[in-house]
Amino acid sequence: xxxxxxxxxxxxxxxxxxxSELEYADALDTVPIGRYNVAPGTHVLLINQRDTQLHMDPxxxxxxxxxxxxxxxxxxINARVETAANSRMxxxxxxxxxxxxxxxxxxxWKKSPDDPKKKQPYFIHADEPIFFAAISxxxxxxxxxxxxxxxxxxxxSDSGLLNIHDRRxxxxxxxxxxxxxxxxxxxxxxxxxxxxxxxxADNFAWHPVSKEVGSTHNNSIKLMExxxxxxx
Length: 232
Description:
- By secondary structure, the chain is α+β, with helices and mostly antiparallel strands.
- The chain contains five helices and 13 strands.
- α4 runs antiparallel to α5 (187-195).
- The radius of gyration is 17 Å and the shape is globular.
């Protein structure tokens, strides 16, 4: 986790729920983002704070520093909260590249107990917009670098979510999300937010969805809808 998610509302919807007192630097529109099947390797709108303003910028989902890419390794899409703050790969991002992925839920694939090769996708969501903790190497469009990108911070699943997948994204409630974004927040405090401040599994609901979500060519609200058959 996390390998697919939905980002479908307008920028204003997400920013309103974040409830930051900071000014948004760009113009807001009423056009929904409308991405029901966001996949790695694509650019995703991320909320970030620069000085005393908020921005939403497209950042590539996937990251590998130069030394990683020189070893012919593929970019990674997630970072474990247990190790990210102090790892060689992610420590610089943790300290200086904290962002938020605004989302409406994410997808996980549950293996069949009878046949591990068979997997059923589920959509996991809350009753409101959610914010994934993300870390990034990011430059504005004018100064973008070839190794810019981001990863979603993940943690071990708990409660009912463990039945779907053993990892889940770190989802921050608005107050913790605002603090996570603040460049003045220390790395140690960010660790506290990503562990003790994250939303608990009890805040989420989930249901089976169509296997059509497995193809990145599919993008419609039907992907988020409950599959019309009985699946535990």
